[in-house]
Amino acid sequence: GPAGFVLPGLPAVNRRSLASCSTPTAASATIRAAHGLVYKDQGSRHRLISVTPPGPWSATPARVDTLWDVNILRNAPQQVPAAPTHTTWDAATRTLSTTALPPGATRLEAWRVGPGSMPELLLTAGPGTTAIIIPATITFTPGDLYQLWLVALNSKGRSPAGPVQNWTAV
Known about the structure:
Elements (H helix, E strand, L loop, with lengths): L3 E2 L7 E2 H5 L4 H11 L2 E6 L2 E7 L4 H4 L1 H7 L3 H4 L13 E3 L4 E3 L9 E7 L6 E5 L6 E3 L11 E10 L2 E2 L6 E4 L2
Antiparallel strand pairs: 1-2, 3-4, 5-6, 6-9, 7-8, 7-10, 10-11, 10-12
């Protein structure tokens, strides 16, 4: 691997310097000292005061600030999101939508089941999207009854199905 710990725009920290540190706090101090970073202790969070020499990190101290936020490690693990509470199917625009992403969800999936078939994933929306347009390449047999629904997801998994929309294809 690389010889040291590097933040873009700042010099590397030698692994031997870090290996000689007896605690994570000492290692953190070694990294900060080697990079000319000056921090103000704010409990479990360290606020960037200055960077020497100036680099891309000094122009955006908020980016550096989050690198040392130990609360990220202390927060409860992410849970599987709740199911979408409202689902609307607009057959004219082939859009399956919800009013808002459920708490903890990052994306939505559109699902369907037709007569005598298994549930089928149609499409996964982009991050933060609340509507999914089903493309014309996904076909529905005219006269067949379909059930459509949304599922919320994040890195932990999928929610249960949201409200099911029944629709007879035309």
